Amino acid sequence: MAQDWRLFQGGDTRPHEVQTWPPAPPWRRFGDDARRRDKERPLPYLISDEDRDVVNMALHLHRPLLVTGRPGTGKSTLAHAIARELMLGEVLHWPVNSRSTLTEGLYSYDAVGRLREASLKRRADETAGTEPDIGDYLRLGALGTALLPAEKPRVLLVDELDKGDVDLPNDLLTVFEEGEFEIPELARLGKGETVHVQYAGSREKVGITSGWVSCSVFPVVVITSNGEREFPPAFLRRCVRLDLKQPDEAQLRQIVTMHLGEEVGARAQELIADFVSRRNERELATDQLLNAVRLRSSGVRVDQDVLDKLFRSLNEVDAQ
Ligand SMILES: Nc1ncnc2c1ncn2[C@@H]1O[C@H](COP(=O)(O)OP(=O)(O)O)[C@@H](O)[C@H]1O
Ligand SMILES: [Mg+2]
Lowest CB count within 10 Å: 183, 225, 234, 280, which one? Predict the structure, then answer.
């Protein structure tokens, strides 16, 4: 007999092993599992012809693409879709928060760690002059890594820039215009000095000379915003802007079919219609629909009023 879909029972249930863990939805796979999925059947991305052309303009102009839209409209996923289709490697992800600074995006330097190591070495009475290598304590961030010289552009996702400090867009602007930056800690070592430092998403190191990083091809920069803050005109002027609309019923059906197959898509019509009518009243995101359809289609027998809890509004005001 198949195990109860309720893995967790609560109450005084005795601890028990889960015989088979429920398989992950295609979009919740990680590590090797995700890499295998991307090779065999990559997650599809639905985009209108018009929006697709805006993306292509940004690619041709070597300009950042500023993507706005309600939560769940596929802003972050767009960066991954571009990287996958154009075989540009892993997306360099910079999730912006209120404490994010330009320097954090470029690089981080663990000065304290290096000092500690130096004093340990001295105490261990090692030969003088064996200062710990500065390259072991310096790491390029997502933005810094995207600006490394390379044959093909990397994809950089500056996610939710509107969550950042007011000055961050303008700080970014300078780097995006110049395509280069200096690491003062390395520049101080002298002209022509090469240091090997770590960089984002890799265990390898890259040589940086005279503390200067300069890109050879501008990265594919995707900046997302939920519209919590307006950006200054000087910033907007230098980006190509894309406003993603909420998908309509037919598009939702396509997204469901692309993620879960033709058969599931056909059976989900009612759920999709229900989702759309609720979305007219409150804030709902596409992933909430995908979750509901996935649960339904994986044979989980959950009552409608429990399933409804997946369609809770993203906006607390609506919920009252
Ligand atoms: N146009 C689309 N095509 C395919 N999947 C989509 C699309 N829009 C949203 N999704 C799905 O919805 C989920 C949320 O998308 P996400 O990119 O995280 O939204 P946002 O960044 O705009 O909040 C993802 O799991 C994605 O697979
Ligand atoms: Mg997002």
Answer: 280
In residues, how long is the chain? Answer: 320
For residue 69, give the ligand 1 atom closest to its CA: 22
In the chain, beta strands by DSSP E:
65-68, 92-95, 107-109, 138-140, 155-159, 180-182, 194-198, 205-209, 212-214, 220-225, 240-243
Lowest mean pLDDT, pick from 90-104, 159-173, 298-312: 298-312
Q: Which of 196, 227, 243 is the last residue of a domain?
A: 243
- CA-based nearest residue to 91, from 103, 76, 106: 76
pTM for this one? 0.90
Count of structural domains within the chain: 2
Q: Whose CA is nearest to atom 9 of ligand 1?
A: 74
Q: Which atom of ligand 1 is nearest to the CA of 71?
A: 23
Q: Which atom of ligand 1 is nearest to the CA of 73?
A: 22
Nearest residue (CA) to ligand 1, atom 15: 74
State whether 89 and 59 are in the same domain.
Answer: yes
d(CA 159, CA 223): 6
- Beta carbon of 27 within 6 Å of any ligand 1 atom: yes
- Cα(247) to ligand 2 centroid in Å equals 16
Handedness of CA 215, 216, 218, 220 (dihedral sign): negative
Q: What is the pLDDT of residue 120?
A: 83
Same domain, 261 and 229: no
- Is any ligand 1 atom within 6 A of the Cβ of residue 165? no
